[in-house]
Amino acid sequence: MILRLPVKNDFDFYYELKCEPSSIYWSGFASAPDREKLYVHFMRFVKNNFPDRDFYILEDQGVPTGYLQLTHNNATEIEIGYGVSEKYRGRGYGYCILDQAKQIVAKMNGCINLIGYVRDDNYSSKKCFEKNGFFRNGTYVKRYFALDSSDAKMYLYYWNKQM
Fold it and tell me: What percent of the chain has pLDDT over 70?
């Protein structure tokens, strides 16, 4: 399994993943994304037009299975966003994505916290973060989930890379 930079041909995979019912649900949206808007957004990743974000495709033997987005919130904090296609869940890809995110951050200079927000009832994501050595410190934000028509607590998980 490798993380690699995205190419234009990855868009169909990314769009299909973002349209999967579980991806829509855990992202907090009410429906699948607009294809054209998502394409424009995705092409900014391909062209590396986000100065504060790094984006990767997880690939296993030439087959895209998931993605990783690292958002540089500031000089000491990078936030994880990731997804694994429903077709490939339960095979350790989520664990692999978080492990590789830690490896990327470990190569960076300085003291950096790698963080992710996880809804309390998203047991798969909680398990991935915890198995990767992330800690939940009790901090949370409330986020509206359209399909539930309610706010949910999103707990902060963090991993610290010392200098």
Answer: 99
- pTM here is 0.90
Domain count, the chain: 1
Residues near 36 by Cβ (< 8 Å), separated by ≥ 6? Answer: none
Distance from C-alpha of 44 to C-alpha of 70, rounded to nearest angstrom: 14
Better pLDDT: 57 or 25: 57
Compute the half-sphere exposure of residue 51: CA atoms within 13 Å on the CB side of its CA.
2
Residue 135, domain extent: 2-161
Q: Which two tokens stand for residue 78?
A: 């990078």
Alpha-carbon span 149 to 163, nearest angstrom: 43
Residues 6+ apart with CB under 8 A from 65: 1, 58, 59, 84, 85, 87, 88, 93
Tokens of 118: 């996880």
Domain containing residue 75: CATH number = 3.40.630.30
Taking the C-alpha atoms of residue 110 and residue 107, their distance in angstroms, rounded to an integer, is 9
81 or 141: which leads in pLDDT: 81
Output the pLDDT for position 25: 84
User: What is the mean predicted confidence (pLDDT) over 97-107?
Assistant: 92
